Amino acid sequence: MRLVYPQYFTVQDSTGDFDWIVLHAAMEKTAARFGPYKLSPSKEPLSVARLLAEMSYPEGSINVFARATDLELEKKFTPIRIPIDRGLMGMRLLVVRKDDLPRFAAIRTIDELKRLSAGQGQGWIDTDVLGAAGISVVVAPRPDALYAMLEAGRFDFFPRALDEASREFDMQHKTRPSITIEPTLMLRYPLPRYFFVRHDAEGDKLAARIRAGMEMMVQDGSLAALFRQYKGPLIERASIGKRHIIDLPNPLLPPETPLQRSELWFRP
């Protein structure tokens, strides 16, 4: 069995490292039952548009990818409905300008947050989640431009997944000293990140094996252990217990999402 996953371009896709660590572990768990496998990256980095195009026909250069789910994605591809990151992607810290910290510290409700504007990348699910909550969203065609746009005052805050925010801040703060991670708030909405495969015979076999491996990892605790190993320090750094959490609905969340399975989700 051969699996080819996409290389990514930018720091915004740095969650990919953890994705493939989890996928490798799931394949190892199922080696005795399903046999040998080969797991390798694509020959070149793929944009999201190219990734989806490659997955849309059987001869495409990849046959598995990881992405936050939505209704449309689950129509086109087969999801393995076990959140890779235990739902951490839906926990959002706000990157802001330092001068604006006092006004964010006074915010406690979504109505208060709606007075400000957010920045997002084109095609990101979060754009719809924030928009549905009544938040004005400025969309950038190039995700790598968002920090410069925030610094320039084009919008007021840039929500990043909890594990993305700290890594990206460490890479940005020396060249952009006017921005920081806001310390008192966190947005939270259900946004599971899944593995996806094609709707075809090969995809069915891949899905069965990945699903079996991940269920084994849930049951024996190894998925939670990897989560603690790779995400734990970033979670601790975020000091969630000191933050006021604003919950938002996700209108693009498929009804099949296993929200009732508490063992699949990180609950701070």
How does this structure look, described?
The protein is globular and about 55 Å long. The chain contains 11 helices and 12 strands. Helix 7 links the parallel strand 6 (117-121) and strand 7. The model has no long low-confidence stretch (mean pLDDT 94). With 268 residues, it is an alpha/beta fold. The protein has helices at residues 16-29, 31-34, 48-55, 71-76, 101-105, 110-113, 125-132, 146-151, 162-172, 201-220, 222-238; strands spanning 2-7, 38-45, 65-68, 78-80, 91-97, 117-121, 136-140, 157-161, 179-181, 185-188, 193-197, 244-247. Strands 5, 8, 9, 10 and 12 form a 5-stranded mixed sheet that branches. A 3-stranded antiparallel sheet has the order 3-11-4. Strands 1-2 form a two-stranded parallel ribbon. Helices cover 38% and strands 22% of the residues. It folds into 2 domains: 2-87 and 191-238, D-Maltodextrin-Binding Protein, domain 2; 90-188, D-Maltodextrin-Binding Protein, domain 2. This is Transporter substrate-binding domain-containing protein.
Secondary-structure element sequence? Answer: EHHEHEHEEHHEHEHEHEEEHHE
Could you name the CATH class of the largest domain?
Alpha Beta
Shape estimate: globular
CA gyration radius, whole angstroms: 19 Å
Number of strands: 12
The helix tally amounts to 11
Structural class: alpha/beta
State the fourth-level CATH superfamily of the largest domain: Periplasmic binding protein-like II
> Could you name the CATH topology of the largest domain?
D-Maltodextrin-Binding Protein, domain 2
CATH architectural name of the largest domain? 3-Layer(aba) Sandwich
Helix content: 25-40%
Our measurement of the CA-to-CA distance between the termini, rounded to an integer number of angstroms, reads 37 Å
Unreliable residue stretches: none
What proportion strand?
15-25%
Mean pLDDT: 94
Question: What's the story with the biggest beta sheet?
Answer: 5 strands, mixed
Count of the separate structural domains: 2
Organism: Massilia eburnea
Protein name: Transporter substrate-binding domain-containing protein
